[in-house]
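Backbone-to-sequence.
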């Protein structure tokens, strides 16, 4: 039995667990670590979501404890499962895991993307703040104008009570109040809701996708940070940022997004220097 630690930030890490490890007979996840978002460590991934192989759930520790955890929990493998990291930071984390005695691994789209029975349009970006949310909103309106019923599935932000966030459906501002959504969540959900779109989010994206499929013609994946989609897209848009030229080739998983893309959109061209726009385009 291989013992695994998933290195995350309350989002991609839970999805990777659900897709690859929850029902694996020969791998046991002994811990998650958490970074980037203050206060998300010290929790437990609950047994309701972890499944019958984890009756006590899975503890979540701060990432700085990774070397100690590898040794004390006798971990064989660590899985990096969060985004918006420089390539240097990826290998600093990897070096920390390797020096403590564990293997270090990334998971790819084949093992982590769900398949939908509906057409899927996805929007990702090369960095947080590139402007993918405005692109997502424009795409959703364009598809509706074409007569399609669009349901939005948003990248996760499960920073509250995990037992209540397996599948979340938001069709009104009152739904956001009932779920006690954070300011960050409201910033992403409210514009979609204001335009009359239903938004799904949460933790268990298999169940989220199947619920969304029941009320949609097209699924729109609205990505978070610079992560790649959780659902295999028919068309993938990558939003590039000429105010941070070159980041598309130096951050993880920015370059993956670019290589997966059917369409690249260079945003902020009204404020960026022409030479930087040209650099991004050439990259």
């Amino acid at each position: 039995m291989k013992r695994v630690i998933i290195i995350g930030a309350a989002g991609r890490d839970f999805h990777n667990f659900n897709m690859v490890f929850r029902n694996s007979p020969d791998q046991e996840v002994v811990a998650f670590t958490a970074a980037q978002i203050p206060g998300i460590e010290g929790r437990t991934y609950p047994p309701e979501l972890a499944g019958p192989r984890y009756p006590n759930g899975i503890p979540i520790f701060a990432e700085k404890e990774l070397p100690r955890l590898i040794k004390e929990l006798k971990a064989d493998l660590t899985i990096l499962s969060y985004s918006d990291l420089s390539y240097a930071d990826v290998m600093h984390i990897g070096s920390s895991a390797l020096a403590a005695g564990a293997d270090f691994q990334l998971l790819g789209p084949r093992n982590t993307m769900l398949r939908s029975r509906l057409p899927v349009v996805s929007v990702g970006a090369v960095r947080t703040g590139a402007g993918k949310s405005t692109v997502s909103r424009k795409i959703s309106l364009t598809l509706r104008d074409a007569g399609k019923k669009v349901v939005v599935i948003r990248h996760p932000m499960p920073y509250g009570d995990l037992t209540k966030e397996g599948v979340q459906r938001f069709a009104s501002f009152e739904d956001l109040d009932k779920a006690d959504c954070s300011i960050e969540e409201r910033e992403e959900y409210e514009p979609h809701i204001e335009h009359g779109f239903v938004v799904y989010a949460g933790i268990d994206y298999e169940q989220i996708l199947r619920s969304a499929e029941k009320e949609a013609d097209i699924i729109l994946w609205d990505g978070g940070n610079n992560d790649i989609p959780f659902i295999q897209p028919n068309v993938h848009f990558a939003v590039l940022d000429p105010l941070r030229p070159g980041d598309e080739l130096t951050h993880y998983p920015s370059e993956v997004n670019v290589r997966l893309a059917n369409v690249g959109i260079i945003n902020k061209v009204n404020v960026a220097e022409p030479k930087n726009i040209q650099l991004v385009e050439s990259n």
